[in-house]
Amino acid sequence: MTEARESAGPHARRAPGTPCWVSLMAHGLAATEEFYEALFGWEFRPGPHQFGPYVRALLDGHEVAGIGQLPPDRRLPVAWTPYLASDDVDHTADTVRLCGGTVAVGPLDAAEAGRMAIASDPSGAVFGICQGTAHLGTAISGVPGTPAWNELLTFETESVVKFYETVFGYEEEPLLSAGFDYVTLRVAGHPVAGVHGVGHGLPRDRGSHWLTYFEVADADRTLRQAAELGGRVLRAAHDSEHGRVGTVTDPEGAVFSVIQNPA
């Protein structure tokens, strides 16, 4: 496995478009904490509460993710949402609207988390935008229990990639393979996210959506454990060119994938 890496120095800013945080809004905060504590070894401490109960997940004292509680009257889909870095959230939100996307929340100030917004692309996939200040996002990577990759699952890549390129300035790297529609999004030459066109394989009940991968030491064991804890395995662990991967839901139905890097 790779060694732990601090994602940014104490005063560093993520380059625009770089995934900098993942957050989950759930109905039962305490039960959700218990699931991820058992699965990933996370500990929790309170985060900003101006939008309701919210905690930050820590691994060995480093912040790795956030979990908030949905208001009882909001029957929104429970899903992991990646936040993409911006130097100017207000300008980015305006660009989202101009390019056919929607801004559902904000832009607004979120205490020490900086300024943020929640938006969706023209295909309906939800993502966050974050202009960090004191809180600069996920503080560690490369070890089990940390976010490893974010991937947009959509019907086809061409139109939606143009949206993200315009909004965040990504460089596009298509995968030249017959029958496989995949584009890697790069920032300053570094791969930061992927867009996977799955055609009619897109779940009808979810539509286009972002999928977060978490690094684990043993993908098969993690999926078994997730099922034992009340989750559901959607795709069994299997080998890929990037490692052994699988997809699961937590007890409330939030979908995420796990990846075990090659030894």
Automatic annotation (TrEMBL):
Q: What highest taxon heads this organism's lineage?
A: Bacteria
Quick check: keyword Lyase in the entry?
yes
Keywords attached to this Swiss-Prot or TrEMBL record, sorted alphabetically, are: Lyase
Q: Does the keyword Manganese apply?
A: no
Q: What Gene3D superfamilies has UniProt attached to this entry?
A: 2,3-Dihydroxybiphenyl 1,2-Dioxygenase, domain 1
Name a GO molecular-function annotation: lyase activity
InterPro entries given in the database record: Anthracycline_SecMetBiosynth, Glyas_Bleomycin-R_OHBP_Dase, Glyoxalase_6, VOC_core
Q: Which residues form the VOC domain?
A: 18-132, 146-261
The record's Pfam families line, in alphabetical order, gives: Glyoxalase_6
Q: Which SUPFAM superfamilies match?
A: Glyoxalase/Bleomycin resistance protein/Dihydroxybiphenyl dioxygenase
The name on file for this protein is Bleomycin resistance protein
